[in-house]
Automatic annotation (TrEMBL):
PANTHER family: MALEYLACETOACETATE ISOMERASE. The lineage of its organism: Bacteria, Pseudomonadati, Pseudomonadota, Alphaproteobacteria, Rhodobacterales. This is Glutathione S-transferase. InterPro entries: Glutathione-S-Trfase_C_sf, Glutathione_S-Trfase_N, Thioredoxin-like_sf. Residues 3-84 form the GST N-terminal domain. It comes from Rubellimicrobium aerolatum. PROSITE patterns: GST_NTER (PS50404). CDD domains: GST_C_3. It holds the Pfam family GST_N_2. Signal peptide: none annotated.
């Protein structure tokens, strides 16, 4: 059973990230169909996900389309009760649902002033009263969730849940714009940036088409504050140590070099997403560790 998910640019579409995490982070197979925001690609794609007007949109194996990330979370949770979308404890589950609902409807200053852009990180960002109020509310909610559910952190209601998936784009905004938050909130941000599913999403985002000018800010930049990837680069020539692509099993045609080793892939995308963050990909990591 594989789900079909319509998404926008991985670097910028926060709602797409949420929708994808609700599948990948919980071990559910997903086939993505992407289109660039602010182009005719998006409405063209969504014709296959009618009556959706925005991303994410999920098509179930029977053809039914589920709109909006909250509905996607609930539908997946009902279909896969053992996947862990919501906490098993009723008290923690109520808190997690409350968190997801407020994230879905609120934080307007944070959304408008700090749109998601996981390709860059800035040294500083101006924080006005409206943005400060959203950050204060975030601190209140995250502290309340941990205190109410007894979660030791970094996740909000115990093990990683849909509530955490909903706040993943908020964590990226804090990382991108160097927003001032408490040490406990920073620990949650660090956990999000290190999450295996998020690392794979960001690796794809780094090679997912050209920059969108709308998201550019003229602030001094700093290195991305997440885990430093294994250094790697694309190369045109060399002798790969593998004959088949670690992802598809097809013959290799494109090469990556890292620490004196050459690894082959079946196409440019397989190579480039790996160059962006090699050890985010389990198949590559297994190949890398085998020698």
């Amino acid at each position: 059973m594989t789900y079909d998910l319509a998404i926008g640019d991985r670097a910028y579409s926060s709602w797409s990230l949420r929708g994808w995490l609700l599948l990948d982070a919980f071990g559910l197979p997903v086939r993505t169909h992407s289109a660039r925001l602010y182009t005719d690609e998006l409405p063209t794609l969504l014709k296959d996900f009618a009556p959706a007007r925005t991303v994410p949109a999920l098509r179930l194996p029977d053809g039914t389309v589920v709109l909006e990330s909250l509905a996607i979370a609930e539908e997946l949770a009902s279909r896969h009760p053992d996947a862990g979308h919501w906490p098993a404890d009723s008290r923690a589950r109520a808190v997690a649902r409350s968190l997801a609902a407020e994230m879905h409807a609120g934080f307007h200053a944070l959304r408008s002033q700090c749109p998601m852009n996981i390709r860059v990180s800035y040294e500083t960002t101006p924080v006005d009263d409206a943005l400060r109020a959203d950050l204060d509310r975030l601190e209140t909610l995250w502290s309340w969730a941990r205190e109410t559910t007894g979660s030791p952190g970094p996740w909000l209601c115990g093990p990683y849940s849909a509530a955490d998936a909903f706040f993943a784009p908020v964590a990226t905004r804090i990382a991108t714009y160097a927003l001032p938050v408490s040490p406990s909130a920073q620990a949650t941000v660090a956990a999000h940036l290190s999450h295996p599913s998020f690392r794979r999403w960001r690796a794809m985002a780094l090679v997912d088409g050209p920059d969108q000018e709308f998201y550019r800010r003229d602030h001094p930049r700093r290195p991305w504050p997440g885990p430093a990837p294994l250094p790697a680069r694309a190369v045109e020539a060399g002798t790969p140590e593998n004959a088949a692509c670690p992802y598809s099993g097809q013959p290799v045609t494109h090469l990556l070099e890292s620490e004196g080793r050459t690894i082959g892939f079946c196409n440019a995308l397989c190579r480039d997403k790996t160059v962006a963050d090699p050890l985010a990909w389990p198949a590559f990591a297994a190949l890398w560790a085998a020698r």
